[in-house]
Amino acid sequence: METTVLLAVFGGVLCGAAGVGSLAIGFLWWQSYRRTEILRSNLGPAAPAQSQPAAQATPPPPPLYNKQYADHPSPNVSPSVPSPVPAALAQAGIGPGSVWLDGIGGMVAGQRITIYKDETLLGRSGVCDVQFHDPKVSRQHALLRRYNGQYYLYDMQSSGGTFVNEQKVESQQLRDRDQIRLGDSVVIFRRS
Fold it and tell me: What is the pTM of this model?
């Protein structure tokens, strides 16, 4: 009889711990989702650009979450003029206008990550579009965003910072072959 009572109490404790763990995981996911939505809703429209001389005119990156922009059609590529795409990339499904990240360091070394969306969240969390299983990467570390045919990288207030070509950045327009470092993970931004 005492053994049955002890087993019942022990089983109840285990079930209770599993329930609390499930609640904690659900709460953490909800918090990260809510943080993303708050960031998206709090940032307003872009400030008007200041006039600069034509030789020094570098457009600032667009605001992180300005939903006032129009849809961005794919680049106008004439079907009669084929783009030169190496055979290895064509076999991997990468064609003209494709964007991908080639992992060269850390836990992503040797991986190729194809980018399909206009906004791609990078981080350690399960809610991210691209997950980095690196303890030095924040849950929601950075955002890769396509705007007017260009790609921009935004740091999402990460604890370790986001680096482009070993320069710490808050936001940065990306060019082909730029090196991006999140924690110990290093990728190369590529465009065809």
Answer: 0.55
Q: For residue 113, which of 124, 126, 129, 127 has the smallest C-alpha distance? A: 129
Q: Measuring CA to CA, which residue among 66, 61, 60 is closest to residue 39?
A: 66
Which of 151, 117, 121 shows the shortest CA–CA distance to 138?
A: 121
At 163, which helix (H) or strand (E)?
A: strand 162-164
DSSP 8-state symbol, 98? -
Two tokens, residue 174: 């990306």
Q: How far apart are CA 176 and CA 154, in angstroms?
A: 17
Alpha-carbon gap, residue 192 to 112, rounded angstroms? 14
Instruction: Return the closest-CA partner of residue 132 out of 154, 101, 153.
Output: 101
Closest CA to 122 of 145, 102, 104, 150: 145
Residue 123 in tokens: 């981080």
Reported as type and span, the H/E element at residue 8 is: helix 2-42
What pLDDT digit, counting tens, does each position of 16-64 carry? Answer: 555 555 555 655 555 566 665 655 555 544 445 455 555 555 667 766 6
Measured in residues, the chain has a length of 192
- Range list of H helices, 43-179: 87-91
